[in-house]
């Protein structure tokens, strides 16, 4: 049976009998171990087959999902759960998005680009986070997804840090011409899109014998165009209200 693109992203299509909570924990651990989508699809189908034949739950047949995921072979072709190219795509995209939106919005409004101490502090915090992810991407990902409290608290602390430096150092330090920040931001956005295109890794599960999951091209271009589309939206949100001011 041919799968749709949406079904390719839903593991329940390959394992409808396996309880969702057990399957999610199993898939998460296998992904963190770097198992490729085709091998992971085989694992899921095997679990589904045993559960269906036995009439028991996955917990009864295989035990703890995390422990079972670690018992299975990973394969010599393992992939790191969060690659440095993934980090580069995200960080360059975010930096380019914010810098270009800031510069273009200021240009459209006719304002100067004033840099405050808080802006420099925010840039420093972003640099620290980027360094952490680049130095230990897999370890960082495992900490984030393995502890629910960290998942909830980390974004709050990050946002709080950016807000705090803006409030503590609101003094204007200098102004910049629009052209420089715009060119730097656009270069970062372009680099992010190129990295996303050339290093795209489809995370959709593949059924046994399936060469590629449906919708891979759509998912690739969604990733490539994500930050440019967000840039257009941010600029419009910042500029259009000023027309009616």
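^ structure tokens above, recovered residues below v
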């Amino acid at each position: 049976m041919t799968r749709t693109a949406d079904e390719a992203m839903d593991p329940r299509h390959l394992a409808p009998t396996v309880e969702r909570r057990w399957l999610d924990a199993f898939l998460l651990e296998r992904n963190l171990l770097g198992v490729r989508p085709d091998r992971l699809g085989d694992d899921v189908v095997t679990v589904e087959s045993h559960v269906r034949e036995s009439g028991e739950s996955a917990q009864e047949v295989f035990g703890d999902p995390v422990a079972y995921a670690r018992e299975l072979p990973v394969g010599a072709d393992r992939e790191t759960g969060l690659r440095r190219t993934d980090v580069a795509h995200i960080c360059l995209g975010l930096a380019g998005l914010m810098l270009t939106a800031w510069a273009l919005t200021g240009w459209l409004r006719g304002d100067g680009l004033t840099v405050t101490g808080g802006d420099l502090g925010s840039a420093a915090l972003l640099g620290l986070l980027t360094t952490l992810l680049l130095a230990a991407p897999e370890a960082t990902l495992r900490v984030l997804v393995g502890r629910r409290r960290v998942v909830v608290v980390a974004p709050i602390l990050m946002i709080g840090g950016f807000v705090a430096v803006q409030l503590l150092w609101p003094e204007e330090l200098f102004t910049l011409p629009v052209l420089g920040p715009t060119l730097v931001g656009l270069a970062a956005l372009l680099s992010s899109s190129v990295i996303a295109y050339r290093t795209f890794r489809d995370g959709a599960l593949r059924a046994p014998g399936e060469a590629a999951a449906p919708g891979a091209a759509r998912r690739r271009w969604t990733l490539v165009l994500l930050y440019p589309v967000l840039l257009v939206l941010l600029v419009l949100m910042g500029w259009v209200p000023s027309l009616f001011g």
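The mean pLDDT is 78.
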